[in-house]
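Sync notes, pocket subgroup
Present: LS, DG
LS reminded everyone that the earlier model was apo-only. Rerun requested with NDP included. Inputs:
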Amino acid sequence: MTATAAVLDVRNPRTGTADHSITVSSREEVAEKAAALRENQRGWEAMGVAGRCGVMARWLGVVKESALAIGEADAVDTGGCHTSYLQGFITCGNIGGWLEDAPKAFAALEWEGMSSAMPTVSVESQVVAYPVTGVISPWNAPLMLALLDAVPALFAGSAVLLKPSEVTPRVIEALFETVRKVPELAAVFDYVTGPGEVGQAVIAESDTICFTGSVPTGRKVAVACAERLIPCNLELGGKDPCIVTASADIDRATTSVLRGAVYATGQVCYSIERVYVHESIHDEFVAQLVDKAKAVRLNNENPRAGHIGPFTFAPQAEIVARHIADARAKGASVLTGGEIENIDGGLYLRPTVLTGVNHDMEIMQDETFGPCIPVMAYSTTQEAIRLANDTNFGLTASVIAGDAQEAKAIGKQLNAGGIFLQDTFLTFAKSRTFGTDSFGWSGYGAPRMGLESLRRFLRRKSLLTQTGDVADIQDDHHLGAPK
Ligand code: NDP
């Protein structure tokens, strides 16, 4: 840090005032931190997965003690609802899960045997970690989305340099109070602060990158990684559809769609952002959805009690307002919600149900990231599938039908990584079990969930030993030709 280091004010999403600040990390500071991590990573990797599990188990103990404080910081950063307060405990689940899974993932990657192509050659695989993993994370779910990548990277044997969003730094500061209590971990896990240029500096110093954020920034990250020829894993936006068929239970479908669309003020990458309902149940579906939407409460008086918090990032409210205005101007009806409310400095939007929408509207094409539920009628299943797939994105998609078989038949035709049947928002059901790829603009690189996600931080080497005779220059069987 230099005497002239820039300081950035941080807004509180509930009050609209700047009550916090961060110092922007200089390019030199980023380089120094990365160099220290690179040096310390050698010992971290040499510990082996069992040794690292021992350190991570101690960290888990510290995080448990601080889980409430971490949750409080997350709630201030995001203006979030009661689930913000769970973030410390969710972190414990993440670390605890990898304590069980990391040894299994390493065991699955190790291999020893004879070559099937050249039977006299034995093969032994060795996995080595990328020395420094750079993690660049967004303002929504700021702790969870930083740690979804950082925790497995650490278990894999990488050191991690994190660049959180400048919008939500408080929860990361609370997290690193726990990291500093475990010196072996603090030696290989560090963070830097500031805007996008600091993210670019992290890319310049890292050996592999995990980025979560928007499509435009993801493109810049991909280009910067390509210039350095380092791998990058991008988790980007979504415009996730839900198809509700004629045979669906309308009560079940409206409850699920509402939760999937407005949870965390709709600021979730896999929020439901478009709903296609069969024309035969459209009016009843909309009537029930509007009734339920009207019962949703803002949490301005008590963050732990209501359902919808303020927008975390003030400019997001402008994007959402623009999408609603564009839809209105093109003929949509707003049946409930629809106006951004400034309450004591916080910017809120009640669940906003729109009908009369079509694919010429921004609200059906671009990521809205707010509690909006545009509903469109369809007449045939093939039309619903075509509309759901008419998008640049492909993160998740949901189908709610009369039974699971009908839902599955439709789900198999949708272009998205996570297909949720008979409910929405099932992402965390797969988190420990398996990963999925993203379609279109929603992602790039290997899956971030499941055992296979550890592979993102590891390179595999093969040690090949000739146990038979050495071929002379006339023999071609060393090229795989039969003798
Ligand atoms: P941004 O793309 O704006 O920012 C993401 C991170 O990148 C922030 O830390 C940001 O810093 C940093 N950054 C900005 N510019 C650059 C740059 N040129 N080079 C390197 N880093 C840079 O995303 P948001 O923070 O707005 O997050 C919301 C987005 O994230 C939504 O599109 C959402 O869908 C997506 N997302 C995807 C998820 C997934 O798993 N697929 C999960 C959650 C969110 P700073 O903020 O300080 O400017």
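DG: The mean pLDDT is 95.
LS: The radius of gyration is 25 Å.
Action: DG to write up.
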